[in-house]
Design a protein that fits this description.
Blueprint lengths: L7 H27 L1 E13 L6 E4 L4 E9 H9 L4 E6 L8 E3 L4 H5 L6 E7 L2 E7 L1 E9 L2 E5 L3 E3 L4 E3 L2 E7 H4 L5 E2 L3 E6 L3 E6 L9 E3 L2 E6 L1 E16 L6 E5 L2 E9 L12 E5 H7 L4 E2 L1 E4 L5 E6 L2 E7 L1
Parallel strand pairs: 1-4, 8-13, 9-14, 18-21
Antiparallel strand pairs: 1-3, 2-7, 3-6, 5-7, 8-12, 10-18, 11-17, 12-16, 15-17, 18-20, 19-25, 20-24, 21-23, 22-25
């Protein structure tokens, strides 16, 4: 069947139609993004101006819904790149009452957003608080690490923080449950020298607990590691009911990974390898596994030979 060809006039009409369609779409899009819309976002709460002599418990979630009036373009960007915002809530009025009304703080909250975004309301509009006795204590600082080391390098000593302890102040029941606080994680790749940095104390949503200071200087000693082979005598646990017990062999060879600068520091006295005869008495095993019950800090066991030993028991 012969195909129908489009002549020059028809091609021109189609081109004009497509052009008009594109212009109409662009005009509609410009109107749409320039109009104002109301958009609701979730926001976390950060408390400021906390009364010094009053400890409090929020009686609701630490996340609120914020209704914002913004342009269509901002709505589009918010949908394409959703992000949980944080808003600050002024608690200075808690010195005389146990609730906060957001409608009284709309001006303060709007100053936390760009001028092209207007906060209309926050839900729930009222936050309630329960007050309790305030207490204070010191807790140690810990440093979580996510570090990839250069080959043959690793941590060779305890991580040090300055200060070692921070002071926390807040409701008795909350403060009593905090055994330690962590800093933000320390990251690194191909690390082969000591790490020295300043890291913020991670609050972990503890909005009603005051922490001082809010940061710590962190030092992580990094050094070169090397293998060291140590022969360790085997100790027998729970042998009291027998006349004599002998293991074959009487020593194990342990391959360790130690700091190069501490190579001569560690000896067999710093390790302990045992076998437990209760394992034979209860399970009648033919050989006993070696258990390492004492290993110095920052020393890594690579290999134990043999991992199981034969034994002779005289009752």
């Amino acid at each position: 069947m012969k195909q129908r060809r489009i002549n020059k006039i028809q091609r021109r009409k189609i081109s004009i139609f497509i052009r008009c369609l594109v212009i109409s779409f662009v005009a509609w899009l410009l109107i749409a993004v320039s109009n104002k819309y109301t958009f609701t976002v979730k926001a976390g709460i950060e408390y400021v101006n906390i009364p010094e002599k009053r400890a409090f418990h929020p009686l609701q979630s630490d996340t609120v819904s914020v209704r914002i009036k913004m342009s269509g373009w901002n709505v589009l960007m918010s949908r394409l790149n959703p992000d949980t915002a944080n808003i600050q809530v002024d608690l200075s009025s808690l010195s005389s009452r146990n609730y906060i009304v957001f409608s009284n703080q709309i001006g303060f909250i709007n100053r936390q957003f760009p001028v092209d975004k207007q906060v209309i309301s926050v839900g729930p509009d009222t936050l309630y608080f329960d007050f309790s006795k305030q207490t204070q204590r010191k807790v140690p600082v810990r440093v979580p690490m996510h570090i990839a080391f250069k080959k043959q390098y690793g941590v060779v000593g305890p991580t040090r923080t300055s200060p070692e302890y921070v002071t926390i102040t807040g409701p008795l029941e909350d403060v009593a449950n905090i055994e330690f606080l962590e800093t933000d994680s320390v990251f690194g790749t191909q690390v082969h020298t000591d790490i020295r940095t300043v890291s913020n104390i991670n609050r972990k949503q503890r909005t009603n607990v005051t922490i001082y200071p809010t940061f710590a200087e962190v030092t992580i000693p990094i050094g070169e590691l090397t293998e060291k082979i140590i022969e360790i005598p085997i100790k027998v646990e729970n042998e009291g009911r027998y006349t004599s017990v002998r293991t074959i062999p009487s020593k194990v060879t342990v391959t360790t990974l130690v700091s190069l600068k501490d190579f001569s520091k560690w000896t067999a006295r710093d390790f302990e390898a045992i076998v437990d005869l209760d394992n034979w008495a209860e399970n009648r095993v033919k050989s006993l596994p070696i258990l390492m019950t004492k290993v110095p800090d920052f020393v890594k066991i690579i290999k134990i030979e043999p991992q199981n030993v034969d034994f002779f028991v005289r009752k």
